[in-house]
Amino acid sequence: MSHNTFGHLFRVTTWGESHGPAIGAIVDGCPPGIGLEAHEIQAYLDKRKPGQSRFTTQRQEADAVKILSGVFADASGKQVTTGTPIALEIENTDQRSKDYSEIKDKFRPGHADFTYDEKYGIRDYRGGGRSSARETASRVAAGAIARKVIPGVTIRGALIQVGQISIDRSHWDWTEVGNNPFFSPDKDAAEHWADYLDKVRKAGSSVGAIIEVVAEGVPAGWGAPLYGKLDQDLASAMMSINAVKGVEIGAGMGAAELTGEQNADEIRIGDDGAPHFLSNHAGGVLGGISTGQPVVCRFAVKPTSSILAPRRTIDRQGHETEIITKGRHDPCVGIRAVPVGEAMMAIVLADHFLRHRGQIGA
């Protein structure tokens, strides 16, 4: 299987399967001399790991990361990157492959079972193998390293919609994101989601969600105007996340409803003598190049495909049948997609930072 690598100068290759002994990532292109300890990566993995609330899968994984290569203790004893590939490993410790034995010959509607079998002739029915969202833990670990490459840039994500229930943007409070199990910037919305998802979970069903990721401190000039657009790579990165079905930058689809006067982000000179934009419909990117404003990206995650309600399907022999997916699944997989979106934003920005630095010769 090819296409397991993302990035140009900052490159991330993930490996492993959902029910294999371990998963991990190889990060290539990280500059030398950057301080890196396992606990710094672990802090981000802890935000993504399952079993932290009744609203996510109850699979219990410590997601403890090991750094196997690419670091060395300098003269002061501090562990720093060496500029060589950084190998990361995360053991799988709570697989229950037997949960999937009844569906090993059936295709789950909405899942990648059918397409995998058609492409490779081999399907890992134990949680989906490489197509499982378990793979995203590797991305989060790599994203923690990417953040170290771009000091001064702050990346934050939030859940802004669950099913048909959206936040009130006038209530947006970044400090609230860490105070609830949904990464919600709106306390009231989080309370509504709790009641709603309890009903969804008890019904054995699932719902989708929308996540917003914002990067502040990105200077003007990152990206390229044609086939290396910053927003192009962001869209590719977010769309590569499991279950994502839509991506938008800035006003996104809403830009179609605006007039030219409304959509234009007017510019003045600020008190500091630097350009100051009066709005940010562009999401911090114009012509594929960062403007210096916050980079804003949103993506939509579909409902979890594994549900208890019987669904019509076929098996590998071409027989029509029904399927019920047992096991431990997220009623809203979009919740744990928040730290994954942050990680992919960090990986893209680290890559573009290095590409820009290479161009200007800094």
Any overview of this molecule?
The protein is α+β, with helices and mostly antiparallel strands and 362 residues long. Helix content is 24%, strand content 22%. The protein is built from seven helices and 18 strands. The chain has a five-stranded antiparallel β-sheet, covered by helices on one side. Strand 12 and strand 13 form a beta hairpin. Helix 1 crosses helix 3 and helix 5 runs antiparallel to helix 7. The chain is globular, with a radius of gyration of 21 Å. The model has no long low-confidence stretch (mean pLDDT 91).
Strand order of the biggest β-sheet: 1-2-3-7-4
Q: Give the uncertain stretches in residue-range form.
A: none
Cα-atom Rg, whole angstroms?
Answer: 21 Å
Distance between the termini: 37 Å
Report the principal-axis shape: globular
Number of separate helices: 7
Structural class, judged by helices and strands?
A: alpha+beta
Largest beta-sheet characterization: 5 strands, antiparallel
Number of DSSP-assigned strands? 18
The residue fraction in helices comes out at: 10-25%
What fraction strand? 15-25%
Q: Please trace the helix and strand order, writing H or E for each element.
A: EEEHEEEEHHEEHEHEHEEEEEEEH
| Mean pLDDT across every amino acid position | 91
